[in-house]
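Researcher: Sequence of Altered inheritance of mitochondria protein 6 follows. Predict its structure.
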Amino acid sequence: MLSFFILAALASTSLAVKPIHSHNDYTRAVPLWDALNLSIMSVEADVWWVDSQLYVSLVFFAVFSVAHTSGAINKAITLDGLYLEPILGIINGTVSSITPISVENPLQLLIDFKSDGPTTYQPVLDALQTLRTGGHLTTYANGVLTQGAVTAVGTGNTPLASVVAAEPRDLFFDADILQLYSTKPGVGLEWGPEIAPLASVDYASVSSTAEMQQLVLNAHDFGIRSRFWDTAATVSTWDNFWSAGSDWVNADDLLAVSNAWAAFQS
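Model: Prediction complete. Tokens:
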């Protein structure tokens, strides 16, 4: 069960401007900024721990390559330079942004561990130190979940055991939405936003619209937001997710999804 303090923290948090997640954000013409310029407050970066540095995957040729392999690493591009430095600047007001990043308008930063999870975990924690020092990270400590300007969520090879063991905790976990009722995050623990503010799954694993709708409700029962990836890129598909109350629509064409959201609201 969620504690009173967690429920209070959730109630006081503003929802994202748009229920849209910038999938593989690092592949965009201008990573981070393409999303923020459309008031999209959830972005995703694949990271590799290579030669004592956290690199962000980047495709060499958008048509022929994918950004999920170590061969796509551009060693001039780091997690810090591409995301963390500009995010900190926006929060502090030293970098101008159409869309602010603040406790009232928080950014979800999804960090997809592509290299070995346990090996990559501490470097990711270390990389978040500047945001941590400024008090800008959503944090769980002493039974209280406190919303920050940035909620960092590990996915991919992120080690759940390390996330659960962290005290205080400011790097969270992307749970499997199919297993919220069938698994536990640890002995004597229940799923909740203090461990996993997000629960996701490949939509190919979902049998029907009715199951998707039930999975959204299941996640919300735990105070967790929902996301489905590898979905058809059509307006009817996006509308279907929004009608079900799914919190994040996984998007590659940000402008098209933003326009669809505006039409859906009207």
